[in-house]
What we know:
Radius of gyration: 25 Å
Shape: flat
Structural class: alpha/beta
Amino acid sequence: MKHETITTSSQLDQLCERLSAAEVIGFDTEFVSEDSFFPKLCLVQVVAPGLLAVIDPLAVADVSPFWKMLAARTRPTIVHAGREELNFCLAAVGSPPGQLFDTQLAAGFVNHEYPSGYGGLVRRFLNQSAAKGETRTDWRRRPLSDDQIDYALEDVRYLLPLRDKLQQLLQSHQREQWFADEMQSWMGEVQDARERLRWRKVSGISGMSSRSLAIVRELWMWRNKEAQRRNMPAKRVLRDDLVVELARRQSADPNKIRAIRGLTRNVIQNYVTSIAAGIQRGLDLPASELPQKQRSEMPSQLNILGQFLSPALNSICRSAQIATALVGTATDVRDLVAYRLDFGESERQEPPALALGWRAEVVGKLIDELLAGKRTIRIKDPHSDHPLAFEPSQAPE
């Protein structure tokens, strides 16, 4: 596939100048993340009208001009499932690409499936086939073969026509504003996630006391900082199961810590003092500052209503030609029911997702009417793809 290869800073500056003037561009990245805390950027593929290029970050000393150019753009920049692409830009310059358009997200507003792979969207909407192969490439190794480069370029080859087709469909469905709102929300979530303390994702903490949860949180924060400092996966510093065991034992005694089965020699030699300090911080935390246990049980009525209304969510979305997974989940339905019927949700700081924005327009208002008895669910045609009908309730005589 004919393309330009960018391996010097001067070549990158020239490319960025041309891309700045382009009406629309698309890009993708290849990276490796299994051996480090921060993903290792190995290749950037770029497409614009009349232009196809690959940037080699392992050869170019500083790739930041590319990210600065993206952040400064006021014309569309296209990605597919671009969470890592957005993260690279945020890490480099602190700002997202201007006018970002994610084809995976856009497709969810005009198609039943979400999230959809790039190749699937190319087949569905463009009737083309993106080439496959080289899926297990170690993108850090040099030189890259022509086949590897061609495979990487396939990920941007169809981005511009795919965006054009999806844009047309968004217009015909009158969902451009829905998509724009969701893009802003999604970018905000990605930015927030960079700072969010995700210690509750540690596996095995269900049912723990608040004091043990405080220790988990302290150990997670220490582990995260150490992993960043050493640029290594966090779980290689200290595994989740060991974090949980340490929190359950609630002992900051270094000798008792060393006695826990599973601790590697490296952990015992280098981290016992830090682990003990983290445990002690959790033990010393005032009761008023302890993390709250998450409620694991729900009222039986809420569970029944959630199970009943969740299939309705799928039916509503299919009728509206929008992906159910993009709109919400069974948990979102339960959250809306709990919020509307005040099942212990009075302290909630903000309305649930299905009560806000375009989601309320698609689903939330209809569920509200079902809960209020203003609508009923009826099996209209059991052989149809849309067997359920939502009809106004008949007023009692």
